[in-house]
Amino acid sequence: MLVLETNKDTNSFEVFSFRWVVLFLFILVGIINQVIWITFAPLTNESALFYETSDNLILLLAMIFMVVYIPVNYPASRLIDKLGLKWGTGIGVILTGVFGFLRAIAPNYAWLLVFQIGCAIGQPFILNSFTKVATNWFPEKEKTLATGLGTLAVLLGAILGMLLTPIFYDLFNKNFTPVLYIYGGVALASMAFYLIFVKDKPPSPPNAYSDKTKIFEIKGTRNLFRNRDFILLFSLMFIGIGVFNAISSGVDVLFVFSDELYAGIIGGLLIIGGVFGAVILSALSDKFHKRKIFLIIAVTSSAFLVILFYFIENFIALCILSFVFGFLLISALPIALTYAAEITYPIPESTSNGWMMWAGQISGILLILGVMYLPSVKTNFIIYAVLFAVGIVLTIFMKDISEYKHILTED
Q: Is the dihedral of CA 37, 43, 47, 48 positive or negative?
């Protein structure tokens, strides 16, 4: 049953409390999709031994999510808009549930890769929907917060994969099969809850964006890349998401420790920091209705912190740096996704969202190749610093959202 809440901002739009149920279920399916993505990253060497293959082929299990995202991104966005939020995203939810479970019965690495690809095809259907959930269900004052909480799915899934996989691996006597059964069972249960309870949209629109007609055809995508600020933001996301993907996927290679749990802790703290940052800074961005200043803070601090990663090897210091790095960098993702949807209105949110994530997958592939093949893994941090320095310049030339306020008043 949908419960109507009073909207104090305006009498024109209605807000329903069921929006939180919908958002929770999207977070749930997003979490398990990301657990599947990052499953083997904290135990790259151990995974290679278990499946009798090489470290690079284990890294491929994470990188394949980025590779598949590139061709699937556009059709996923189109299907989300054509079929609606529930069934468009539902394609990805079903793929994640079915193939996530099948990983547990994979007889060898080749079949594991096949099932991993099935889950990877589902990822863009899920990731491209976060801003659409916010626009379909949430009032204007909560949109960035809702997108930030949706982004938590990416972060929480990565945290759980980083921290739980080493624990389960030891608990089950260094056997990956029971670990995959646990993750597969959760994937199937999440799919069931999603299909039963998620609704496409409330009976009436909660904000001005959801109340207006959207540009849907290919023309909309062309218009995205005629917007200077979108191009600048697209380039910025190429850098930010790419570095996050590379560090998350290659944490066991970039940070070499004697204890197999240490790399998982470093990766987990990076993402835990991102969880706090995504909630706190997204709420502040909504409160002050500012986007640009938060993006500048994110890229400037990230440029400085990756340089420290190059020089510091003490575990405790790296834990602190990882948390701060995640807090400041990952918090920029929901803010950037909301900003992209706002400056490209009335193009569908799933389209702008999808292209932002697409940029990060391209750079993630390139940067993971650096982790795999550069003679010195520390060199990767210098590359990240240079990229963030470029990002600072890009962000300075962006306009803030206040200069786009006329959009909401257009007929």
A: positive
